Amino acid sequence: ARILVVDDDLGMRDTLEAVLIAEGYQVMVASDGAETEAVLDRESFDVMLLDFKMPDCTGVELLSRIKRLAPNMPIIMMTAYGTVKVAVEAVKQGAYDFITKPFELEEMQLLIKKALEMKKLTEENHELRMLLKEKFIFKNIVGTSLKMQEVFEIIKKVAGYDVTILITGESGTGKELIAQAIHCNSSRREKPFIKLNCAALPESLLESELFGYDKGAFTGAVTAKPGRFELAEGGTLFLDEIGDTSLNMQTKLLRVIQEKEYERVGGRQTLKADVRILAATNKDLKQAVEEKLFREDLYYRLNVVPVHLAPLRERKDDIPVLVRHFIKELNLLFQKDITAVSSEAMACLTKYNWPGNIRELKNTLEKAVLLGEGKVLRMEHLPEEILTYDQKSPLENDNPSLDNLEKEHITQILTEVKWNQSKAAELLGIHRNTLREKIKKFSLKEG
Asked: Could you give the CA distance from residue 246 to residue 411 in angstroms, rounded to a whole number?
């Protein structure tokens, strides 16, 4: 991250520059308002540290000019003890936070990390709003199967209503994308979409992440920090892997859903929560309720509208569509020019059961596109476990043969190009004579 330090005190500038460079940041310094504006005209930064007293202006005066030059850059005001009131006013006018001099360097480092986290969340929400302007509805959610069409219909019907939705499905099925689509089609779409993986944190940290904490709430809480509920105010909070929360945490979540209020950790003030909650899990919550591992009342509060994402093995019709979608993305990412997938390779990809679902499919294609040569993705570009899956599958009789899958793929491509065999051969990555042989082999006929 790039940081701009603005202070007329040479000793303070040098100290902050040395400490922040040692922490791995890229640092530039300025000593007054004019130099600061000149630097911002030609450079961009992730965070600015701005002293209140400048030789040619006050930090507050400079603040409004900086906000015009870099509106999304968090600014941390540095102030002496006697000017705290002015610094608080600066926060009201757009500064991210303030810190009083003299301060501990660890305190400043923590404040910078928080500012960077906030900037990242802001940028993510800006990207979501941009996607919305492009008529996002189902962008990046790919599926033509009946199961996915049913999901799309549910989203269209309920996105505009402020109800809680529980999204279920195995890991890698795209639950977060569905949550984003619901948010972007709701009345809250211009407000933040904030996410939190409940399984990624121990309970003590999860509580402070969700509800925030006040200064002094625990050792190390040198400044107050807003939680995800506060950050999502007016918008949507996506709680991923909610089935991994403890019963104690479930009780606290239930209270927020029912009463629309909560307190920060270590805080006394009750805060209101104007937030829509979308939750997701890869667990069977009904069974967890029966086993007394999940609160029944919370389950019914969350499960107002259930959305289930079927695993990829149950919607194999979507695999060719997903493959083409990901290859387009990966071509851009890796500056490749893969224009086709051989029918044999597509048959193998469709045959495989994908225990890791869409995530595993994308990772497999990422490696194949990155390491593969030429314009056609072929069998030799695929990993061994996919190539040998047909022989070791215990469900052989329940799965279509590779020949049948290849036949379906060729038929689909021929139909898409209205039986233009030259175009079909190009898309399949095979010679036109080879295509003619396969048409004959599978007894394919136009219409």
From this structure: 51
In this prediction, residue 127 has a pLDDT band, given cuts at 50, 70 and 90, of: low
d(CA 34, CA 235): 39
**Higher model confidence: residue 342 or residue 230?**
230
d(CA 286, CA 295): 10
Q: Which two tokens stand for residue 248?
A: 């104690």
Q: What pLDDT is stored for residue 401 in this prediction?
A: 59
Is residue 166 domain-shared with residue 302, that is, in the same domain?
Answer: yes
Cα–Cα distance, 37 to 43 (Å, whole number): 10
Q: What is the mean pLDDT of the chain?
A: 86
Residue identified by tokens 């990829």 is 312
Q: What is the CATH number of the domain that holds 373?
A: 1.10.8.60
C-beta separation of 442 from 407 below 8 A: yes
- The order of strands in the sheet holding 2-6 is 26-30, 2-6, 47-51, 75-80, 97-101
CA distance 332 to 323: 14
Confidence of residue 398 (pLDDT cuts 50, 70, 90): very low
Q: Note whether residue 167 is domain-resident.
A: yes
Note the pTM of the prediction, 2 decimals.
Answer: 0.62
In a domain, 391, yes or no: yes
Look at residue 51 and give its three-state secondary structure: strand
Name residue, tokens 């779409």. Answer: 189
C-alpha to C-alpha distance for 421 and 429, rounded to whole angstroms: 12
Q: Map tokens 């003030």 to a residue.
A: 269
Give the dihedral sign, CA 250/251/257/262: negative
Q: How far is residue 27's CA from residue 7's CA, in Å, rounded to a whole number?
A: 13
Which helix (H) or strand (E) segment holds residue 63: the answer is helix 59-69
Domain range enclosing 103: 2-118
For the cut 90, the answer to whether the pLDDT of residue 62 exceeds it is no
pLDDT at 91 over 90: no
Please name the amino acid found at residue 239.
L
How are beta strands 376-377 and 340-341 bridged, if at all? Answer: parallel
| Residue 190 CA, distance from chain mean position | 17
Q: Give the pLDDT confidence score for residue 133 in this predicted structure.
A: 47
Please tell me whether residues 179 and 165 are part of one structural domain. yes
- Whole-number Cα distances in Å, 240 to 244, 251, 311, 318, 359: 9, 17, 17, 24, 16
Give the pLDDT band (50/70/90) at residue 130.
Answer: low
d(CA 90, CA 86): 6
Which pLDDT does position 45 carry in this prediction? 87
Q: Among 269, 237, 279, 1, which Cα is nearest to 117's?
A: 1
Tokens 């969350």 locate to 302
**Tokens 């509106």 found at:** 71
